[in-house]
Structures are given as C-alpha cells and as structure tokens.
Amino acid sequence: MVIEIEVSAARCMGSKTCTHAAEGVFVMAGDVARVADPGAAPLDDILAAAEGCPTGAIKVRKDGQQL
Fold first, then answer.
1. pTM for the whole thing?
2. Cα gap 12→42, rounded to integer Å
3. Which residues face 26 on adjacent strands?
4. How far does Cα 37 stand from its chain's mean position?
5. Distance from C-alpha of 37 to C-alpha of 23, rounded to nearest angstrom
6. Cα-flanking dihedrals φ and ψ of residue 54, to 5°?
7. Each residue of 3-29: pLDDT tens digit?
8. What is the CATH number of domain 3-66?
9. What residue spans define the domains of the chain?
C-alpha cells in the first residue's frame, strides 16, 4: 500500500487546518503547507485533513487511486 500526498502550493491559503488534523504529516513552510512525514498520522487523519482543507489543496492517493 503506497500513500501519496500532494499539496498544491498555488491553492493553499495557509489555514493550518491540515497541521491540526494530521499532526506531523503537514508542516507550514511560510504561508504554505507541505508534507513533512506521510507516515506520521493514520490514513483517516490524513483524509480528514484533505476533506477539511478550505481550498481543496490536498490530494491523497493510495496505490495510484485518488481517495
């Protein structure tokens, strides 16, 4: 099982919602979130971060399929 997480810097508005939902997975780099450690939180937390992103900047794939 391969999990891929992508944050669109162009869409990210820096709300930090993802850093709270999936602590350790996402960190802020200035005003934009980035992926620090994809294995730092359970998949459910990562999906919650993606769903909670106000701009839809986070995409999560498992084995190449969009979740």
1. 0.91
2. 22
3. 23, 35
4. 10
5. 9
6. -65, -20
7. 899 999 999 999 999 999 999 999 999
8. 3.30.70.20
9. 3-66
